[in-house]
Amino acid sequence: MSDIAMERASGNQGEAVLIELRRIIRAMDIHSKKAGRYAGLTTPQLVVLQACARLGDVTLRRLSDEASLSQGTVTAIMDRLEAKNLAERYRSLTDRRIIHARLTAEGRAALETSPPLMEQKFTERFSQLPPARQAEMIAVLKEIAAMMNAGSANALPPFFTSSGFLEGEQDPA
């Protein structure tokens, strides 16, 4: 726990936890905004582009599963990515109800020049911890999520909300 959290909470451990959570959210927000300014893309847009790159030609349903976003959110993100000519959608030749997505050459180039997502740096650092410490941290975070009634919320990729943006963040598109 940071010295700031300890000082502000002055004995209230619950408040200290909430302060640390706000610091984490703030760090994610700052990183997302920096990445957005650098690449011209939001974190959710980068996540969808990365999923397209990993999966190749993919259905929107599979893409939304991979990105842990609702199909509606992925559709809105794909609208913006198509407008920037970074990805494209097309109907299945065998079943016209199914829509596929794929990266364009511009989308691949954007991924090559985009900064790494915050979760990539975090994952590298987290993986360096001993396995017992990793398990302990996961267990504590699960407890905190349960205390915040987050058990029924969709499991989103780290570092953004169900709207696809961090609280207070606007889509630059």
Give a description of the structure:
- The protein is mainly alpha-helical.
- It has one domain (3-147): Winged helix-like DNA-binding domain superfamily/Winged helix DNA-binding domain (Arc Repressor Mutant, subunit A, Orthogonal Bundle).
- Helix content is 60%, strand content 7%.
- The protein contains 8 helices and 3 strands, in the order αααβααββααα.
- The protein has helices at residues 3-9, 13-39, 43-55, 60-67, 71-83, 105-113, 118-127, 131-147; strands spanning 58-59, 87-91, 99-103.
- The radius of gyration is 18 Å and the shape is elongated.
Describe the secondary-structure layout.
Elements: H1 3-9, H2 13-39, H3 43-55, E1 58-59, H4 60-67, H5 71-83, E2 87-91, E3 99-103, H6 105-113, H7 118-127, H8 131-147
Helix pairs in contact: 1-2, 3-4, 3-5, 4-5
CA-based gyration radius: 18 Å
The main sheet orders its strands as 1-3-2
What's the SSE pattern? HHHEHHEEHHH
Strand content: 5-15%
Q: What is the CATH architecture term?
A: Orthogonal Bundle
Number of domains: 1
Q: What is the molecular shape? A: elongated
State the gist of this model.
The chain is built from eight helices and three strands, in the order αααβααββααα. The chain has 173 residues and is mainly alpha-helical.
